[in-house]
Amino acid sequence: MNLLNRFGGRIWDPWREIGQLQNEIGRVLEGARRHTGFGQRELPAVNFYANENDVLLMLELAGIDPAKVDITLTGDTVTIQGEHATETVGPDENFHRRERPTGSFKRTVQLPFAVEPAKTEATYEKGVLSVRLGRPESQKPKKVLVKSV
Amino acid sequence: MNHDANPTLDKAESNLKQESSTPAGSERIQSRKVFVPLVDILETGDSLILVADMPGVDLDGVDVIIEKNILTIRGKVSDHIPEGFELRYDEYGLGDYERNFTIPNEIDRDAVQATMKDGVLRLTLPKVRPAAAKKVTVVAG
């Protein structure tokens, strides 16, 4: 198709316009996604609690086998991985709904300080995994006394 | 049981906790959040199995109610944060769970069984055995 008119200029091409519009929309959506972090949120979700001595990570992981959960500490990084409880069906059975997470999970959390491996303990209760991490002495907040001179 | 009285969960967000909606025009009295538990529903030859994830809920906190053809599951989350700990950062909300399902007529309401373990509620809804076909003899009037 001859897209050049006799003056040598480009004549209007609707397909090109549509392509440009698509690119534009894609760019805007990409920006929005990056901005909100939506669609790339890390799972499983973690809640983070702290007191003076310890920090506590909590993850909602219903029905998992705690024996298959692996917790690794490397400096200030904790990695928690395991397998979701996955329902399976027999040959004559079928799913009407399948919303619960399946497969394996892995979550890495970076803490504001290095943790003491000896002071780490994990418990699993009511479908909630709690990982309690001890702060080493050197990392604990220190009180500075102000002396009057 | 493929009809759900709650709005369908958006697939893209299906792994995130979603707050449950209230019936039109009504408002909750408690300020506590209520989430929609994620479920698997499977059908075997003689029953429907409903598996719902309700982390944080124990045996005492769970309620299963069948009224006419509506099955309601509720889970009350007990406080599990150890004393002295303060929330610093959260990715999931804390609250109770509630979800309604319409169940087919073929379910035997009196034989429903429920178990609760590690935050997972498992309901077995047996189907009623089909009544044997009965032939009515027509006599000449």
How many individual helices of chain B?
Answer: 0
Order of helices and strands of chain A: HEEEEEEEE
Low-confidence stretches of chain B: 2-13
Average pLDDT metric of chain A: 82
Compute the average pLDDT of chain B.
84
**Could you give the count of β-strands of chain A?**
8
Helical proportion of chain A?
10-25%
C-alpha termini separation of chain B: 45 Å
Low-confidence runs of chain A: none
**Using only CA atoms, what is the Rg of chain B?**
20 Å
Main beta-sheet annotation of chain A: 4 strands, antiparallel
| Tertiary shape of chain A | flat
Q: Specify which chain pair forms the largest interface.
A: A-B, 40 and 42 residues
Radius of gyration of chain A: 27 Å
Question: What is the fold's blueprint, element by element?
Answer:
The complex is a heterodimer of chains A (149) and B (141).
Chain A: H1 14-36, E1 46-50, E2 54-60, E3 70-74, E4 77-83, E5 94-98, E6 104-110, E7 116-125, E8 128-134
Antiparallel strand pairs in A: 1-2, 2-8, 3-4, 4-6, 7-8
Chain B: E1 18-19, E2 33-36, E3 38-43, E4 47-53, E5 57-67, E6 70-77, E7 86-89, E8 95-102, E9 113-117, E10 120-126
From the structure above, extract its key features.
heterodimer, A: 149 residues, alpha+beta, four-stranded antiparallel β-sheet, three-stranded antiparallel β-sheet, 1 helix, 8 strands, 36% strand, B: 141 residues, mainly beta, five-stranded mixed β-sheet, 10 strands, 0% helix, elongated
